[in-house]
Amino acid sequence: MIIPIPRLLKGIRLVTLISVLVLTRPAFPWGCEGHRVVALIALDQLNPHARAAAAQLLEGTPVDPALRRFCPSSNLPAFVDLSTWADDIRSQRKETAGWHFIDIPLSAKRDAAKDACPAASGCVTAAIRHQLDVLRSSSATKPEQAEALMFLIHFVGDLHQPLHAADNADRGGNCVAVAIFDKKPETSGSTQSYRPNLHGVWDTDLVEAAAHGLEPRAFADALRQEFAREIRRCKRQPIDVDAWAWESHNLAIKTVYGKLPKKVPVEPPQPVESCADRNMGQRMFDLHEEINQRYLAASSPVIRRQLARAGTRLAMLLSEVWP
User: The CATH number of the domain where 33 resides is what?
Assistant: First the structure.
């Protein structure tokens, strides 16, 4: 029997939350569990043609044995197991780094959001469109389409992580040091980069807390039950990648930054190569931000809903490619 997430969260003791949140994990968008949950939710909603087409593309897809996989191997379907491949190859395919996010300034107006996608490096919305074009192309080879599918599975998940659609001249929250209960931020040197930081805890720690120990398959089942009405609503709406980006951006304003204990000032939009630029890392550290129980209570529903939306919308995209 699947226990609804809200009931699971009732009565969670602080000591349990601490043990979940201080786990050390690689800082990748939505982490291993989050991306796998998105893929599982999508896989469950694919029409038979799309499910078969995706399975055929990924069947026997070779992964370079020398490639360092940041997520442990699993017995999950290839569609799910390969959902983090786009992160695995970032060190080899450096040109793909900018494809994982779109830095829409917190102060941006909606019609100005398109300016946040530089032509030189690209962004996540452009990358999603490109992968869809490859999947639809009659001239693309099977390996090219398999790669496009692996990118797409990952990028749709990335787009629904609010800090992958927002920036406050802080590298998408990477320059905002935060304490997680008894774990204090520490710097890695002159770059003023601190861990834990706001982006990192949204990638992994808060997802783990929202899952409350459930394995990806059980968590995906619980989210489908909890957000059944939301899933039906998403399916009735048109496919609009830009609208999804703006939705994530607004969640970053309202919850990711808006619910922090200390108010973070809105910075003038400008590129930041390092957290040392404009002394950003130190200024954010001096706020002494903390992820407390109140913040956890505000962020958990957002994370769970975004995972459910991401999986549903990924299924919508693929069902359009393969009706």
Answer: 1.10.575.10
CA distance 74 to 59: 15
- The two structure tokens encoding residue 13: 């003791």
Residue 251's CB is within 10 A of a number of other CB atoms, namely: 23
Give the C-alpha distances (Å, rounded to integers) separating 257 from 197, 211, 265, 302, 322.
12, 22, 10, 13, 38
Q: Is residue 34 part of a domain?
A: yes
SS3 sequence, the chain? CCCCHHHHHCCCCHHHHHHHHCCCCCCCCCHHHHHHHHHHHHHHHCCHHHHHHHHHHHCCCCCCCCCCCCCCCCCCCHHHHHHHHHHHCCCCCHHHHHHHCCCCECCCCHHHHHHHCCCCCCCHHHHHHHHHHHHHCCCCCHHHHHHHHHHHHHHHHHHCCHHHCCECCCCCCCCCEEEECCECCEECCCCCCEECEHHHHHHHHHHHHHHCCCCHHHHHHHHHHHCHHHHHHHHHCCCCHHHHHHHHHHHHHHHHHCCCCCCCCCCCCCCCCCCCHHHHHHHHHCCCEEECHHHHHHHHHHHHHHHHHHHHHHHHHHHHHCC
Tokens encoding 317: 């995209």
pLDDT at 64: 79
Q: How many domains does the chain have?
A: 1
Residue 127: which domain range?
A: 5-61+75-321
Judge if pTM exceeds 0.85.
yes
Alpha carbon distance 79, 58 (integer Å): 7
Residue type, 58: L
At 179-218, the pLDDT tens digits run: 997 899 999 777 899 999 999 999 999 999 999 999 999 9
Residue type, 9: L
pLDDT tens per residue, range 126-171: 999 999 999 999 999 999 999 999 999 999 999 999 999 999 999 9
The number of C-alpha atoms within 13 Å of 279 and in the hemisphere containing its C-beta is 3
